[in-house]
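Minimal example, chain plus zinc ion.
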Amino acid sequence: MDMNDNKKRQSMIVYVIVALAVIFAIQSVFYPQIQKATITTVDYSQFLADVDASKVSKCDLNTDTSVITYYLKDSSGAADESQTYETTQFPNDATLVERLTKAGVDFSAHIPDKSSDLWMAFLLYYGLPIAVFLVGGWFLNRQLKKSMGDDMTFGGGFGGMGGLGKSGAKIVAQKETGITFKDVAGQDEAKESLEEIVGFLENPGRYADIGAKLPRGALLVGPPGTGKTLLAKACAGEAEVPFFSISGSEFVEMFVGRGAAKVRDLFKQANEKAPCIVFIDEIDTIGKRRDAGLSTNDEREQTLNQLLTEMDGFDNHKGIVVLGATNRPDTLDPALLRPGRFDRRIPIELPDLAGRTAILELHAHDVKMEGRIDLGIIARSTPGASGADLANIINEAALRAVRMGRNRVTQEDLLESVDVVIAGEKRKSTVLSEHEKQVVSYHEIGHAIVAASQKGSMPVSKVTIVPRTSGALGFTMQIEEDEHFLTTKKEMTDRIAVLCGGRAAEELVFGEMTTGAANDIEKATSTARDLITRFGMDEKFGMVALGQVQNRYLNDAATLTCSEGTAQQIDAEVQRIVEEGHQAALATLRDHRFKLHELARYLQKKETITGEEFMRIFTRDDGFAPNLPKPEEGATRQ
Ligand code: ADP
Ligand code: MG
Ligand code: ZN
């Protein structure tokens, strides 16, 4: 049933090659009569000499072209027709007839029948190929129809080129999706919203009886990798209905009008197979606001219009539900979102701690693991990771286990793969010089000490100076003990101080700055900016929103919505906040300078130290370290 464009194109190419071969063969059968007999063109004087020498058997004059065709006598005196001679008659040669008669040549003249010649040529050159194409095309069409069933047409002859105007949307039968809600961990709110759609698809009649109208479409909205596609498939699997899936980008093609044809075709197929789910992935590709900007795209607009028409047009009692997925709901055309189209919006959020644990557990089922594995730690060290990231972490761990020649995944594999997925693969080829290693060690320990000495700050889980492919030369991983959704101002300024800790340590110890702090500075600055413009926490500006977040799902960057003068003041305020953090970090590190030296040297030697090791050294009372957090505050975890 699944006859895609590619297959069509292939059979088309084979057909053209075969047809050309047939034409060539036929023409070389017809031509030899004309072509094989060798024609020699000679001078007129040579012809006269042959006549006078009585060598010529017979000749024929074409009165139209004045070409004389003649044959010589063979040994028996008859005409030798294997060799044809041609010459052009010299104008006004009155003596020719006399000479021919004298030499006993059979001579004649003929007026060529132009019309019949033309017809022959026309038939041979044009008629034959056309006939071959038509007959071949018709035949091929019949064969294809026989083997494909009747759901596609392959127009005969030239019209059939690639089956223009037909789409062949992918049909995935319910057995093939094979995914149910059990395969989606967490996302309980989204599942709840989709339950109703599933119920409707299982029994459309029940809803029709009461006269209830169900949503025709629902939009799954959320960041990439949160399981939108997965949920749509699970919906079809739960309801055991066919699942028509197409991606927005597949609609936008080279030929104008094909996208619209695809939409038409998709809904026609869906109508035949109802109840069913039509899933349009990345719908923002076609559903962009139509008035947006100067660059209009006719093809996209046509496709969108067709989609709107189809969504209004289909008979909802049969049970067709259109699901769309996007991570850019803000760019969608309002027409798509009005009642009767994608009126229901199902937010799919990044998983929380419980969700992350559930997703990890679900994917861990597929790999063989050692007995003592604590997925909770992994879940806690991956705030902000999407479902796809988590699935990837489990898989990376399995790959690492195989690389190490083990047949079970260990906790260490998992921890390591967190680094790989979150921070990029360990970069083996970057070899740091001893001095660089020393600088990076102080930098990372600087972060860690500032973090650990702040009361209420997250404890450090790991400090490393092993370079990553992402470009980070080292990193300090902090663990959130408990997830929380509200962040206080103090937490934000503390975070800025931690980010400044790396540079501060470099300054204190080496009296110099390096480029290693670039990323920290970026993060500290944007945190300070958010504090002022989005969260209204700054004393100077108060509770005024000075910026606006364009897309909550792709990146959190806000654009300023204030006047230029205010923007200047904001910049100054950002500077002040970051500088405060910087000074706080410097003060903390001065207080703990002995620990800073000890820990940095230890890290430089070991390259990676765990949070426990760090805490053991940091909280050990050496008798001269001031302001040490007491052990129970110091977040030493079991
Ligand atoms: P999206 O369409 O939102 O970008 P996908 O649905 O393609 O994301 O998810 C990608 C992969 O991530 C899935 O194939 C699945 O392995 C994993 N995944 C994401 N979310 C979940 C979840 N809630 N439960 C289980 N696996 C998930
Ligand atoms: Mg997707
Ligand atoms: Zn840093």
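The chain has five domains: 3-36+117-162, 42-112, 165-347, 353-421, 434-636. Residues 184-187, 224-230, 325, 359, 362, 387-388, 391 surround adenosine-5'-diphosphate (ligand 1) (CB under 6 Å).
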